[in-house]
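To assess whether the prediction recovers the assembly geometry, we first specified each molecular entity separately, as shown.
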Amino acid sequence: MSRLSGPDVVALWGGANGVLVAILLGYGESAFATALYASSAALIELIALSTWWVQRRHSAWAASSPGPRRSRPAALAGVVVALAGCAGVWDWWLALPALFPAGALVGELATEVRRARS
Amino acid sequence: MAPDSALRTGGWLGTSDHKRIAIMTMVTALILFFGMGALALTMRAQLAQPDLHIVSSHVYDQLFTIHGSGMIYLVMTPFAMAFGMYLVPLQVGAPAIAAPRLAMLGFWLYLVGAVAILTGFTVVGGAASSGWTAYVPLSDSLYTPGHGEALWIFGTFCAATGTILMAGTILWTAVFKRGPTMTMLRLPIFTWSMIATVLMVLGAFPSLLAALTMLVIGRMDPSVFTHNIWNVGYQHLFWFYGHPVVYVMFFPFVGAVAEVLSTFAGRPFAGYKPTVLSLLGFAALSMSVWGHHMFTTGQASDGYYQLTSTLLTVPAGIEYFGMLATLIGARLRFEVPMLFALGFIPQFLIGGLTGIMVATPALDYHFQDSYFVVAHFHYTLIGGSLFGFFAGFYFWFPKVTGVMLRDGLGRLHFWLMVVGTNVTFGPMFASGILGMPRRVSTYYGVPGLATLNLISTIGAGILGLSMVAFAINVIASLSFRRESGPDPWRGHTLEWATSSPPPPLNFTPEWPFVKVTSFTPLLDRRLAALE
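The predicted structure of the complete assembly is given in tokenized form:
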């Protein structure tokens, strides 16, 4: 118990949901509802598996804080999503202005990758 | 570039400091909280007497839709995430949150979502008007034409996606970024409550995204919803998100209440391990009860959902025992955060016990869509979540700002809120039993109903006044500062071992990381100094 790790907690929680899915199956609930719950439990187990894998293979990377960085790409992505959403609600051409922040976003990320490599 | 200056180059809008992201989320949610509260007051004014015409039925539909969805998607859930983003890195001894730019993207998506949903009020046909559940056919393009509903779908999608991103960063921080001596079983209860919360977000919120995608398809081709699998399937997807979200809006504040109770009782929280286990069990069970919202469809396994819903009382009971055992025999300090935490205990109990009632099929068939249900969930979300939120807000405000909130105004806020909550929502149990349906803009003058509604409206006014006291308190305290110092409450957890507000990387040589030997490291240090 004292050696409980983070991935263990996620996996156990997903497992508890798995037990509840099995009981739901026993009650003869519809296939749709059972599949929905089972897929959610599977998603949690997938997260547990990923965290376990990261812990085994990349624990130093996962625990590190690469230092503070500006989060301008996040703001640009937000603008892109907003304009794309307007296009979805009103008309497609509203997506055109989104190309500018999208271009800037790609530029920012490319610069960052270049810097990281050098 | 030095870390501090790098953090500041982005200012607020381009920051990657988890504390600033959390503060921006909190401030946005607080502004929206007052807006959504104003919508509620308008609705209560409309219902004060039978046959009033303060707003039209169509506007009333928009008010309850945006009030309900706004409070859930844009206020309480972001409050929960903001608490987690600010406090989890501090409590686990991390210098930063994991993937801070993802957290920031989460904030932007939330903001875009909020703007989109509220923009609905400015378009032809008005805002969304099909309730926070957006059931079909009410929400399809035949019955709700216009862009308001589409904006609501887009906004909700963005806000939910933003929440998922924030949740992911909090989980990653708790799992991987803990300080050197911070094992899982030394995590504070608040952090455990956030772990349970974000697990529910990651397990349940994708289901909402799928449900919203169904709505988009349905608005393009309403005929798809003539098939039962679409109608009932939508309800399953929606409620698979819709029930756990109640716990997402509640768990962080249970954690906050636990921290406040133990701090002002001056002892560790009683029954740490059973409480942690019950939080995780509670969260797992909460994923399995969604079908109790669908009893009246006749297409859900009533027995299973009743069983799991009733089982929720076991972990809830363990948490209550822990809270009461922490209080019994302790020398309590009745500061404002403690008042809110104590107010939480009986009021959430009312919400919880009536929840068991409506999760019983025989009773649910009677109470479905009545004001009884409105009273039940407002007792859980106001009597429970909001009291817990304010306990945490008053408790951690000095840590976040370095400033103490005014005690007198805090007490006024508390007592007005206690009276307002119970005068507003208590009578709704009776009006529900008398047959008052929810989501109606007026009602017949059935004996009793008019009086009960008038009392509820007066209570809503008192609740509104309590929020005025709160707003004045925050503004006055920030304008006329009384410095708090690093640890004004004699806290137990790591965030109180650093400055108020904390430095950009949380712990510095000046404010070093404290060695952790239990879930109350600062209390341990204080007790060791006494010996």
